[in-house]
Amino acid sequence: MALSPRSLSVVIPAYNEESGIEACVRALETVLKDLCETFEIIVVNDGSTDRTAAILEALKQSRAYLVVVHHERNHGLGQTLRSGFNRCRNEVTFYSDADLPFDFFELGRALRVMTLKNADLVVGFRHDRTDEGIRRIVYSFAYNWLIRLLFGLRIRDVNFSFKLIRTSALRRMNLKSEGSFIDAEMLIKADRMGLFICQIGVDYFKRRFGNSNLSSLRTIAKIFREMVREYPTLIRTSKES
Q1: What is the value of pTM for the model shown?
Q2: Which of 43, 173, 204, 211 is 20 to 30 A from 100 in CA distance terms?
Q3: Domains in the chain, please, with CATH?
Q4: Which is it for strands 197-202 and 163-166: parallel, antiparallel or unpaired?
Q5: Which helix (H) or strand (E) holds 55?
Q6: C-alpha R_g of the chain
Q7: Tens digits of residue pLDDT in 80-139
């Protein structure tokens, strides 16, 4: 029987997001108040050097459901997400970025898909990415192809920050990535664990504020270092029936 999740934890990593973090929190709370009986928004400030921390602390004063975690220094996406995931208390966990990459009302559709399909994990992919520029499109295509080649994972948009997962399954994953390889690690482990994964297309909005480091050479190099490090363990893990 499909489980209809009524409690939701949302994890948002944030690094130097002073121009958009308040809009993100307000957009989320507008959707979640009508969507779930119980929810929490967990924002992990990954050592921001701007006013992100101060803005979050001010928002927290009037929002019991807002949990703010501060890193003393910048650690990277993987460790930031793991800090947030470790604090999730509800049935289902959703992770996204702070720059409003899609309409958060799509979360309701993802929850319905999870319920109707009895899915363990719902993964979003971007319908139209032309606004990102050719370089990022090529990088993403090559990365998705490489993950499919190495791990047999047929996911259309590995690194897109739209992932809804049952918290019980997330707990079993023992994620280790410190950087942006964590998206691939989560999906590979879900596949190896025999979890039922559904994919849905969403309309994508180009970043309107702040800066993305995902396509920087430093970030890409770290992804490949972590991929090489984790490859032997991930590839040896047998799929569960």
Answers
A1: 0.92
A2: 173
A3: 7-236 (3.90.550.10)
A4: unpaired
A5: helix 52-60
A6: 17
A7: 999 999 999 999 999 999 999 999 999 999 999 999 999 999 999 998 877 777 888 888
